Amino acid sequence: xxxxxxxxxxxxxxxxxxxxxxxxxxxxxxxxxxxxxxxxxxxxxxxxxxxxxxxxxxxxxxxxxxxxxxxxxxxxxxxxxxxxxxxxxxxxxxxxxxxxxxxxxxxxxxxxxxxxxxxxxxxxxxxxxxxxxxxxxxxxxxxxxxxxxxxxxxxxxxxxxxxxxxxxxxxxxxxxxxxxxxxxxxxxxxxxxxxxxxxxxxxxxxxxxxxxxxxxxxxx
Length: 220
Ligand code: SAH
Known about the structure:
alpha/beta, two-stranded antiparallel sheet, globular, binds S-adenosyl-L-homocysteine
C-alpha cells in the first residue's frame, strides 16, 4: 500500500496538520502514512485527497474529514488485538486504517455500490482481516459480536440501542447523535459498573438511515 512518491509530500503535510490539531497517537499517524487516501476518492477530486476535508464519494455520501477519522481512532486507543465493528463503510478508508490498528474488522454499508467498490479496493490493496456486509448497520452485526469497539460514521437521531447491546466488556462505541445538520459525538463505554456515556465533540455527518436511524428519504 505505498502511494506514489508525488503524493508523499501532501500526505506528510496532512499528517503534520493532524498532529498540530492534537492527534498524538503514533500508531494512528502511522496508519495515515500507510493508507493512500487518494485511492479512496473519485478521480475527479483526487487532487484534493490530502486536504483535511470531507469529499464526495458518490451515492450522495462523503468520505469523512481526515481529522474526524483520526479523532475516532485516537479515542478508541486500539492495541491491535480488538474485534471492531464499523457502521458505514463508505469509501473504505477508515476500514483500511482500522485493519492496521485492530485484529479483525467487521464493516456494514447500506449502499450496495459503496459496499462493492470499497470491498474491491481493499481486496486489491491486500487487506485481509475485514469482513463485509451490505445491509442496515443500525441493528449491528450480531453474528460476530460482541465487539471491543464499534464506530458509527453517520449521524443518528437517537442512540442506536442494538449497538450498545453488542459491546464487549470494556468495549467502546463512538456514535454521532443529533439532528440532520449537526450531532454530538458520544463515546459509550461498557464498564463493570454499567454503561457510561460522554459527549466528546461536535460533528456534521450524513444521516444514518435504518431501523434505528433516520427514515429513508430518496437517495438516503
Ligand atoms: N468512514 C466512511 C464514512 C462514509 S459516510 C468514509 O469516510 O468513507 C457514512 C456512510 O454510512 C455512507 O456510506 C452511508 O451510506 C452509510 N450508512 C448510512 N446509514 C447506514 C446504515 N444504517 N448501515 C450501514 N451504513 C449506513
